[in-house]
Amino acid sequence: MLRGRVINIQKYSIHDGPGIRTTVFFKGCPLNCWWCHNPESQNFKKELLYWDDKCSLCGACVKKCPEGAIEIKEGKLINDRDKCTGCGKCIDFCVKNAREIAGKEYSVSEIMKEIEKDIIFYDESKGGVTFSGGEPSSQYEFLLSLIENCRSKGIHTAIDTTGYVKKDKLEKLANKADLFLYDLKFMDSEKHKKYTGVSNEVILQNLKLLSSMNKNVFVRIPIIPGINDDDWNLKHSAEFLSKLNVSKVNLLPYHKYGRDKYKRAGLLYKICDIKEPSEEKMKEILELFLEYGLNCKIGG
Q: Among 145, 175, 180, 183, which one has the highest count of C-beta atoms within 10 angstroms of its own C-beta?
């Protein structure tokens, strides 16, 4: 039976495509963006999330961990994430709900059962389902099967993607999905590699491919102060997009909402000193993209 790994199924989403949507967050991503607001989605394996402010240091998890990955030392609970296998046995005995495993296995039918519960909302709002992550195409067979099942039931589908996908897989997905929410971060390949871990050649070529296929594409550009909001990057991004067939451009101002997740996952947040862009800066960027004749707005 085909199964996939998911971190969350979020109901009543209004920012992941048109109408009211169910967003399915896949686990695993080939990119490692410094500002990612879902860092628990990057690793393909199950992983522990831990809230130290909830923990009472009762020691129940220490006793129940079969790998010996937990200990209390000098008044602090230590999680050895290299030893942790994500079995989840510690969670069953955590009375304070201070522990959670990110990543759960689902069959296609189990996901569809959750999706179909909200068909009435999709119909009334012209909404549907968005497959996000992580990078959903990294679990290609699982994603394709879900899209085909949704299509058979008349449910609108969107893929929220980094664009870092093999061309043949993207073409097959494009022939099934209704909408792509496509991330564009840098025009310079070296900067892209520095801040995401991969170069951008495949991403730019794939966006051209979707354009040539006349697919419905909403391009999403995160605006990260001091990282990708320089004039050169913004101007070349607007110029590049103006030559393509894209339906909409959404400028997404950087926010710190996902910052605490890094601590829970035992990860380093590399851009703690960066502030959110001002309204004035966002309006300036918007004007630039509008000057290139693009259908552009802040947020989305």
A: 180
Each domain of the chain, given as residue ranges in start order, spans: 3-44+104-298, 47-102
Instruction: Give CA 71 to chain center in angstroms.
Output: 32
Where does 3-44+104-298 sit in CATH, by number? 3.20.20.70
**Domains 3-44+104-298 and 47-102 equal at CATH topology level:** no
Give, for all 300 residues of the chain, the pLDDT tens digit. 899 999 999 999 999 999 999 999 999 999 999 999 999 999 999 999 999 999 999 999 999 999 999 999 999 999 999 999 999 999 999 999 999 999 999 999 999 999 999 999 999 999 999 999 999 999 999 999 999 999 999 999 999 999 999 999 999 999 999 999 999 999 999 999 999 999 999 999 999 999 999 999 999 999 999 999 999 999 999 999 999 999 999 999 999 888 999 999 999 999 989 999 999 999 999 999 999 999 999 998
Burial (0-12, 13-18, 19+ Cβ within 10 Å), 156: buried
Number of helical H runs and strand E runs in the chain? 10, 13
- At 14, is the secondary structure helix, strand, or coil? coil
Would you tell me the crossing angle of helices 231-242 and 279-291 to the nearest 10 degrees?
40
Nearest to 112 by CA among 145, 161, 159, 160: 145
Q: Among residues 28, 31, 29, which one has the least CA distance to residue 194?
A: 31
Q: Are strands 70-73 and 76-79 parallel, antiparallel or unpaired?
A: antiparallel
* Phi-psi region at 148: left, alpha or beta (left = phi > 0; alpha = psi -120 to 50): alpha
Helix axes 140-152, 167-174, angle to 10 degrees: 10
pTM for this model (two decimals):
0.95
| Assigned architecture for domain 47-102 | 2-Layer Sandwich (3.30)
